[in-house]
Predict the 3D structure of the following.
Amino acid sequence: MVHQQQITFHTNGHRHMHDLTGEVAEAVRNAKITTGVAQVFAVGSTAAVSVIEFEPGLQRDVPEVLDKLIPPSRQYGHEQAWHDGNGHSHLQATLMGPSLAVPVAEGNLVLGTWQQVFHLECDVRPRQRTVVVTVIGE
Ligand code: ZN
């Protein structure tokens, strides 16, 4: 059994973290499987998905750490080619990665109590975003 659905939402621009856990769990319910995997993919090259304890401290820390590692700058090749101010956004998104797979057992996502699936906006402006959830199992 394969079930696929899209999650769409708006972001407020750079550093916005969106908790996807409820929407991914809903996709798993719609798939009506018992055992398998939910694959989550952020469409677009300036956004990322991962897991974290979704709380205000870490919502601040993650983007701050990324901005220290890969700060906004005019020195990036992307900026020199396109002048769109988001070279760091592309690099941060690639470092974080666009996807993850969460196991499904007994019909539910296998996540820790303090482990949520989130989307991170790395781009410099608000965006309409799409995340594709593909649930595979039986
Ligand atoms: Zn760009």
